[in-house]
Design goal:
Blueprint (H helix, E strand, L loop, with lengths): L3 E6 L1 H18 L5 E7 L3 H9 L5 E9 L12 E4 L9 E9 L3 H11 L5 E9 L12 E5 L5 E2 L15 E5 L3
Parallel strand pairs: 2-3, 2-5, 5-6, 6-7
Antiparallel strand pairs: 1-9, 3-4, 8-9
Helix pairs in contact: 1-2
The structure holds 1-O-pyrophosphono-5-O-phosphono-alpha-D-ribofuranose (PRP) and hypoxanthine.
Hypoxanthine binds next to strand 8.
């Protein structure tokens, strides 16, 4: 049987929220250049849309960190699959993620990146599941706080599928 996807956040609400976040970030970084660090693969859809809504100068780099396998639970083991191409020294760095769930991935990543001497280091996530937190993470910009449900779409996958959905949905797995 096919999986069913129930819409949690419709496309128009995601788009409106990204525009709002872009405006806020542009105000907060006025007079500066912001260096966006995208956490692949999930963060890429959000990062591209967000970058288009930021009006201060933007540079960007990509990193891939994996903590989830094929399942719906974080393994707790965070692995750098692809590191950044450029150094972070003296840059105003904004990490862009699709979701903060247990917080393990971002907790680990922020610790690593802070050691690379950025001028500032902040975190922007499209989704946050505060109920699931195991590792404390300071989130500076949040799109939506969502309940403890496994979500897909807008970069988020279940077993590598559904990243391309233009909305956030909850998967009901087919048998
Ligand atoms: O707060 P946590 O419990 O650590 O979960 C959040 C992380 O899990 C997802 O990545 P994933 O490892 O699934 O990789 P992907 O982006 O390539 O799908 C997501 O993109 C975050 O990086
Ligand atoms: O709810 C989720 N969906 C997809 N990937 C994830 N990685 C952490 N939480 C999630």
């Amino acid at each position: 049987m096919e999986d069913k996807i129930r819409v949690l956040v419709p496309e128009k609400d995601v788009d409106a929220k990204i525009a709002e976040l872009g405006k806020k970030i542009s105000e907060d970084y006025a007079g500066r250049q912001v260096h966006l660090v995208c956490v692949l693969k999930g963060g890429v859809f959000f990062m591209c849309e967000l970058a288009k809504r930021i009006t201060v100068p933007v540079t960007m780099d990509f990193m891939s960190v994996s903590s989830y396998g094929a399942g719906t639970e974080s393994s707790g083991v965070v692995k750098i699959v692809k590191d950044l191409d450029q150094p972070l020294d003296g840059k105003d760095v904004l990490i862009v993620e699709d979701i903060v769930d247990s917080g393990r991935t971002l907790g680990y990543l922020m610790e690593i990146l802070r050691k690379r001497n950025p001028k500032s280091l902040h975190l922007c996530t499209l989704l946050d599941k505060p109920e699931r937190r195991v590792t404390d993470v300071k989130v500076d910009y949040t799109g939506f706080n969502i309940p403890d449900e496994f979500v897909v779409g807008y970069g988020l996958d279940y077993d590598q599928k559904y990243r391309n959905l233009p909305y956030i949905g909850i998967v009901e797995l087919g048998k």
